[in-house]
Every structure is written in C-alpha cells, then in structure tokens.
Amino acid sequence: MVDAVVIxxxxxxxxxxxxxxxxxFSLQRDFHILVVDDNSPDQTAKKVKALQEHYPNMLFLxxxxxxxxxxxxxxxxxxxxxxxSYEYIFEMDADFSHNxxxxxxxxxxxxxGSAQIAIGSRYVTGVNxxxxxxxxxxxxxxxxxxxxxxxxxxxxxxxxxxxxxxxEVLEKINLNKIRFMGYAFQIEMKFKxxxxxFKITEVPVIFTDRTKGASKMSKGIISEAVxxxxxxKFKSLFNRYEI
Length: 243
Hints:
- The protein is of the alpha/beta class.
- The chain has helices spanning 17-25, 44-52, 70-82, 102-111, 134-151, 167-172, 184-195, 219-237; strands at residues 4-10, 32-37, 59-63, 88-91, 117-121, 129-130, 163-166, 200-204, 207-208.
- 40% of the residues lie in helices and 16% in strands.
C-alpha cells in the first residue's frame, strides 16, 4: 500500500510535467502523484491525461476552471488526499526547482525521524540556491528572515514550498480558514503548525531555478506576504487568529 502522495500544482507546465512525473515514479520508494491543474492554456492537463494511461492508479488529476492561486490548489489537493489513506502528503513544484530525489529524504524525516513536518530548506545551512540572480536571492532570503523575526518561528526557510506533512497535521489545521492564496500560503501553513506545536524539521536541499517555463512570482504575491504576516501575527497575539 502506497502511503505517500505528491501534490503538484500546475499552470502552463507542459514543458516540465512529463519529466517530473517520470522522475518521481522512478524513485526507489513508491509515491503517488496528484496534479492540480488550473486550466493551463498550454494543455498541461492533456499531457497528464495521456500519462495516466501508463501509470494507472498512481497518477491522478484534478482540473480546475481557472487560475485560482497556489494556496487553493494545495488546499484542494490536501482535502483530496485526506479523503484517502495517505499518511504523508507532499508539496512540490513542477519545474525541477525541487529535486525529486529529495522526496525520500523528506519522507524519512517524518516516517523514520521525529518530524511531523519536514521542510526542504534552502537556508538552514547557508544559501543553497542555483541560477537565481543575486537580487532574487536577497529578496527570498530576506523575506524568510523577516517572517522569522515577525512570527517568532524557529524556521530558516519560512517561504519554502517543498514540504512533507504527516496526515495528522493537515487533519488538525482548519483548511477552510486559510486566508492567503499566493506564496504567503506557505508562511501561513507553517505558522499554524507552529502555533499547534507540531514538530517541524528543516532538511537542507539545493534549490535550482527553472530552466523551462515562466516564473509565477509577482509584486502582488510579495505584497501579500509582507503585510499579511504582520496581520497574521497581530491577530495571534490577541487570540483572534483561527487555526
């Protein structure tokens, strides 16, 4: 029985999706994959459907009506996974910025170690980022430092999106009360887990920027993270923050 599922949200990832799926399925540990596609104009979903014929009962697809945001894609995937028997539920990008080989290390941190959440961390042992311009490295690293300072979380990579959750974590967090839809979603999930006192471990990984397809980063996403974190922390201080 496969006890782990990797959720991969997609929007215009047809150049990457086949290769990332095949890489995950070639690992020595068995994982299932759930692709959550936001009606990609480049026919990403069509490519996944074709691959499903080769990977029956291993590769799953949810098609949504439009570009609804990273956070809602993962929440949709989380709910789908919780309706099934998976014990370990992963977040991973489609663009190879997250190395599929590291899935096993994150899995082991939860399944064999004491972690209830394992984060693939770019900054726990320095700065492990490849092919990013220095301006973006400083923005990402600075954002994680800022979030750590504001929230008090002992996490070096607070904005990381390469994560393994044990089932019990997602069962405890009220997924219907998640407010952020962009990359701040990653911060909010960690903050709620932190408030619930789950054991969070950072596993050092090397993050490599995409070589195919376009980045989804925008000024609006950054603004949501900067101002949303302050609001989130403020509410928690006065017990007005719903977990």
